[in-house]
Every structure is written in structure tokens, then in C-alpha cells.
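Input record (one chain):
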Amino acid sequence: MKPLLARLSQGERIVLVAGVLLIADLLLLPWYDIDLGALDDAVNTTATAVQPPYAGYGTAAAVLTALMVVQIALARVLSVRLPQPPVPWSQIHLILGIFVAVVLVIKLVRLTDSLGYGAYCAILAAILVAYGGYRIASEPIEPEERV
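The corresponding structure, as predicted from the sequence alone:
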């Protein structure tokens, strides 16, 4: 029996690892860090990507990344047979990966004041997710995916 990650293609491994890191970043790390001087200790001055401002962008990115990760985990790791959509899963991963990266760049550009380290980490992870989606789309289609 092959080890868990050996069953996955390189693109799927990239999406799984970068996707989990991106979701953790969007939910936990500070995207915005406002300096209030002496009030910093009394007031929470950080906001994650799924909190205002522009929370919809972060939420959409987290949900779509989770969809990519769950599809790979179910279909490739747990060998669950998923219904085939009209578009191959490989193309869906490509489209979603690019969409996630673009949405997070838009969120980043809309408000550039007081950016925290989570914003930069998320952009890097989103680019990796998009690259993983590209790698999945450029890999040969396996016979089980054609059905």
C-alpha cells in the first residue's frame, strides 16, 4: 500500500498543503493591525481575513479553498467516488485556484492601510493554491476521472 501523499499528484499535494495553510491563515492570522498607541492593550486591534473590512472576500476564499481540499481528500485520499460534474475536476481546481488568488489580491488592494503579516502569508498561500490548480489541470487525466 502506498503512503498517503504518494497517492497524490504533485498538484494535489500543493493544493492540500497550501490550502490547509491558507484556510488557517484566513481564519486565524491578523490581516489588519491598527496601532492605537496606549489603547493596544485594552482593545483588540487585529482583524482576520473573515472579519470586516471586506469580510466577504476572505470568506469566499476560505470556502472555495475548503471545497478544493475536501474534493481532493475525499476522491484521492479516502477513495470516495464523487459524482462527475459537467466540467472535469481538474478544470474546476484551476478555475477555483485562480479565483481564490484574485479575490485575495482584490481584498489586499482595497484596503492597504495597517496590513498585518497574515495578509502577506495568505497571498503567498493563495498563489501556491492557484499554482497547484494549474498543475492539476496540466496533468494527464486518469481513467477513473474520465468516467
